[in-house]
Write a structure and sequence with these properties.
By secondary structure, the protein is α/β, with parallel strands linked by helices. Helices cover 13% and strands 13% of the residues. The protein has a three-stranded parallel beta sheet.
Length: 101
């Protein structure tokens, strides 16, 4: 299934790719679907926005968001140089960030 627009929210097939433009849509890791449903999922990517343990490098709390934003540029590219698409074989989702109290 080729989802048109916001594949991170509307993609039904976990093994397909989303071809959203880099600067549009919800930002998820490699444009994978945002979901908390782990049924039929092989890999769930999650972030840990935590920087309370650092004193000289604050900002680690922004890294999960930064990694997701950077990965959108790679989401629609063929896997260079091997031309191997791992999403044909692995159902990968973006589970969101860990909630810290």
């Amino acid at each position: 299934m080729n989802t048109k627009g916001d594949g991170a929210l509307r993609n039904e097939d976990l093994n397909s790719r989303s071809y959203d433009m880099t600067y549009s849509g919800a930002v998820s890791f490699l444009r994978r679907k945002y979901t908390l449903d782990l049924e039929d999922v092989d890999v769930a990517v999650t972030g840990i926005p935590y920087d309370c343990a650092t004193s000289n490098r604050p900002g680690a709390r922004f890294r999960p968001r930064g990694i997701r934003a950077a990965s959108t540029e790679l989401a629609s590219l063929d896997a260079f140089p091997f031309n191997f698409d791992p999403f044909k074989y692995l159902a990968v989702i973006d589970y969101g960030d860990v909630w810290l109290d």
